[in-house]
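Tokens for Oxidoreductase. Go.
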Amino acid sequence: MTRWTTSHIPDQTGRSAVVTGANSGIGYITARELARRGARTVLACRNEARGHAALARLRSEVPAAEAEFRQLDLADLASVRAFAAGLDDFDGDRLDLLVNNAGVMALPHRRTADGFEMQFGTNHLGHFALTGLLLPKLLATPGARVVTVSSGFHMLSNVDLDDLNSERGYRRWIAYGRSKSANLLFVHELSRRLARAGSQVLAVAAHPGYADTNLQTAGVRMEGRTGAERVVALANRIVGQPAESGALPTLCAATAPHMKSDAFLGPRTGLRGATAPSPRAPWTRNDETSARLWEASEELTGVRYDFGGAAR
């Protein structure tokens, strides 16, 4: 089988894309390669200075790129709503591709602006709300896709539907695993609901394996654990694959022809290597769990999906 690379990305001219967390790591590579192939691309980032710096870097690497930065904080539902409303002036009523890439990993206990546990609130609820608010554009666009970036660490834990915000005790890696399982359950349920609505929009998941990015060091840096930060950074360099390689499953999920909804792609070995279908925990395809998580997510975010195309 031919190893999938960025050379396999079809021409994206005339297509539009939004990539969350595009200021660094696999998000930046994803945005850059989509723009390189001609997609009009929005870098949706929380930090304004870093977002503008990423945009400048992208334009230096791809001078012909049609790209722009827009501020988005997934840990603040007011910011998510403002971003979605502001996107009304972007490429008319269409959106070809939404890449739900941004995320946080194994942070010390924090809460979002709306009071949710930070990892669940950012990694799942923020993207759940964003996708729902942009759904009318996606439904109106032939061939549209939603790609959500999960992790092999989803295997650590299924979601706890009775304790979504870790009120009964917080363990950072379990909370991270739950948020990444929530990503896969979201893709599973979104695929089911799109199919029931007769929509051709695809919902797909991917993960980067072990990629050398700043995601792994953020938690220990927040706690001022400089020794641990150095150890993690060293492990990244020794074990991790470059961000360019880590972005390949996401780019493949976003652009490869004949992709099936609810697919999950990652490196062949789990940590690194060629892009291939990825193993996933059986609970991430449980219809009852995915439906209950969906209902809870609508209640928590106040964003209710309308597969007829009207935003709410």
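The longest strand covers residues 40-45.
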